[in-house]
# Entry
Amino acid sequence: MRRQLFIALLSLTLSCIGWASAQTVTVFAASSLGDAFSELADRFEAQSPGRNLVLNFAGSSTLATQLLQGARADVFASADEVQMQRLVAENLVANGPHPFAGNRLTILVPEDSELTDASELAAPGLLLVLAGPEVPAGRYARQLLELLDRRWGGGFATAVLANLVSNEPNVRQAAAKVALGEADAAIVYRTDARGLERVRTVTPPDAEAIAIRYPIARLSEAPEPELAAAFIAFVQSPEGLAVLARHGFAAP
# Structure
């Protein structure tokens, strides 16, 4: 009986020690990184027993605002440099930022849509959704429209934006509107079209001219700075880059 009690107490003590020694790193990441970072987190945790990752996905502008308002996190991965520089300007970045991935824009439409060319985005009555202009994907989309306006003229960008029926808080929600049949088209990252059903993509001209780079950085008030640095190194490792490539991201 005493032996069983001793073993039980020992197990409980070891369990408590393990719980107390567990480390948690909080990562704020752009919504478009959702699938890739979820896999990266699983792999990182599997290779680092006792280390846990908490992932918070949202539009980069939303995440940056939360951090500027006092939210605590260890790592920030943004879909553009603009939102990262908001934190740099306030001395909230301790190390970095480091570009780690690239992306491209595409036009997402329902699979039965008759739209086959980017010029058709200006057709009267088309229901267009974009991420909001403060969101990286929304800013990139509007840059693309400006380039296409120079290509085609005739007020193309103005005509397209006249069809805008919704500004979404992040690119994933813009893509979801099309997948759910609530919109005729959206301009999203090509990675966001992966895995969606009942949709297809139309590649717009000049998309390659929009330089989309994702930076990652350790934050100056990171509760777990060493673990944060370890995760950032893992993201940029050959294994991490292979995961990103499998999810459709390009080199930065």
Notes: Residues 1-20 have pLDDT under 50 and may be disordered. The chain has ten helices and ten strands.
